[in-house]
Amino acid sequence: MKDKRCDIETAIAKIPNGASVMVSGFGSSGTPFSLIDELINQGQQDLTIIKNDANEDGIGIDKLVKSGQVKKIYATHIGLNPTVMKFAESGEMDVELIPQGIMAERIRCAGVGLPGFLSTIGFDIDYGKDKSIVEVEGEKYIFEKALSADFALVRAEIADSFGNMRFNTAGINFAPLMSQAADVTIVEAKQVVKVGEINPEDVHASGISVDIVSQIIHYTEEYDPIRR
What we know:
By secondary structure, this protein is of the alpha/beta class. The protein is built from six helices and eleven strands. It has a single domain, classed as Glutaconate Coenzyme A-transferase, CATH 3.40.1080.10. Strand 2, helix 3 and strand 3 form a beta-alpha-beta unit. The radius of gyration is 18 Å and the shape is globular. About 40% of the residues are buried.
């Protein structure tokens, strides 16, 4: 099997200005902080970020936003990030809020080659007012378009050199879906092993859709659960 291992610096250098980037994680759980930090270090601009949440003040996506590199965010939850909330309210940054289940299914559709799906969610609120409406057997549905990206940045607990991944509890969240829905998937892992060292029954996501596997070198406090 192909050896997809690569250092984080070289991996992130493949991302150009203006790219759309999916980022796994919900809060600190499953967020690829090392890949995000390297994206900040390299300074790519005009990025579109697709992530379940915008992280909290001072970590992850919040730092990327404050560095001025993000032009748009798709998210389901920004309530713990005052900077993104401020930018959304002022119009300084384009923020598109999507119900969590809708986002997951839009990403899943992209990963399996579907153009989208039909939903009845959002007819009676602002969310649905600009959506395409489709009628099927006399019933009206909102057409939710598949959501893909140029790149996906995903964090795994363990990955092998081919990209087969095992996640730690809730850290799995959007990672398997995103790894299938991007043109290029970059994985960071706490531990990188040889093919065969992960029990097949413990593989949560196949490496078939992974392009690059990088070892986490600096395990910072950001990776720890946030405690209030």
